[in-house]
Amino acid sequence: MPRSQNDSTRTTILKACRQLLEAGSGQPVRMSDVAKAAGVSRQAVYLHFPKRADLLIETARHIDDASDVDTRLAPSRNASSGVERLDRYIEAWGNYIPVVIPTARALIAMSETDEDARTTWANRMAAMREGCAAAVKALEADGNLSPALSAERATDLLWTLLSVGHWEDLVERCGWSQSDYVDSLKQLARAALLAPAAQARQPRITAL
Amino acid sequence: MPRSQNDSTRTTILKACRQLLEAGSGQPVRMSDVAKAAGVSRQAVYLHFPKRADLLIETARHIDDASDVDTRLAPSRNASSGVERLDRYIEAWGNYIPVVIPTARALIAMSETDEDARTTWANRMAAMREGCAAAVKALEADGNLSPALSAERATDLLWTLLSVGHWEDLVERCGWSQSDYVDSLKQLARAALLAPAAQARQPRITAL
DNA sequence: TCGGTGACTTGACACCGTGTCAAGCGCATT
DNA sequence: AATGCGCTTGACACGGTGTCAAGTCACCGA
Fold first, then answer.
1. For B111, which of A44, A58, B52, B118 could close a Cys bridge (C-beta 3.0–4.6 Å)?
2. What are the sequence ranges of the domains in chain A?
3. Which chain B residues are closer than 8 Å to A157 by Cβ?
């Protein structure tokens, strides 16, 4: 992982860290591993990131920056109906999960012992929840939200269905393909959130 | 946590470990913490449990033993219909989650670095999946399984809906009560798995 | 009553990963 | 030539796990 010309040392370290996390040795990534991968001394890493938690946090930010999150979310924001907004949001977030998951995992593990990591991850999840809330609100505006659910509860439900844990279970442990996952989640979200009448009006997404 | 008369040292340690995990300091429980809580030297702990992973694994077993798992599962096994079997299984497992969750969390964290912990947890999840598969089979036998789902997929779906991560999200992070969780999960499982016609035939569980 | 055995204690130590510190080095700027 | 900056080198403290050896103590059988 030699630094490619005009990358700053900081960026080189972040890229190396990301790469190691994505390589997924199974074992946790150490500061010295990152240093070695970045072709830099261990202390150089500490110079830029005082603690391991900081490195992980910044790596997550770095991935966000490199991933054009706004572009991913545009289709959902521009949707013309509640159900479409829901579908587009599930696509946007559901397809972003595999991008961030290795770093997310490290960050979550770090949360065990580090306060900053904990709040960083909590904030990310809160942001994701905003998207859920917006989709639910759009469903509600269309009169398609199940009468058995308050907006709050519906948001909770959607938020948990879209959790990274759920993705890990389905894709990694059950071996579903990414597109199976996204399609199934759309179906599941509809089944969970929509009023029965609204559900009947929607086309099936896949026939398995 | 003085040892109560006729408990062996081993049992005293297991109880202390469980208690510490359930106290939930936020910080990971150390071997020395367990020793102190059990009123025993740190080495005594290592005498009974060579590695931390062993202690955690045995603590999980110990909780199982103390919790009459078979009794919990009986209502599901004896159910007279697929839907009832499903409901009873969700109750059984859903209400067991809060019992094991502190230990489960420690075990999952340990899986990061320890092979034995990893396979132990995987085995527990595989066992839980058996219950899901049985419920799905019962639904299928009644002709109530959604035609859009294979038994395999339906099992995957139910299994992930019942994952401990999902419980943590809903109960701990969203603040749902345990009974809200169980009721919602029954509803959700029905919405996800049942054929539309079968769904219409089922009574609503709660009106929120 | 003695010897032995097994369970536990005490205290030391190696190992590893994190985080800190101080000194030094090369290089660009002035 | 002197300064400052980014990085390296090598050392060290700390905390948690896991290991080891010697010692204590109570109970059991001969």
1. B118
2. 9-50, 68-201
3. 170, 184, 188
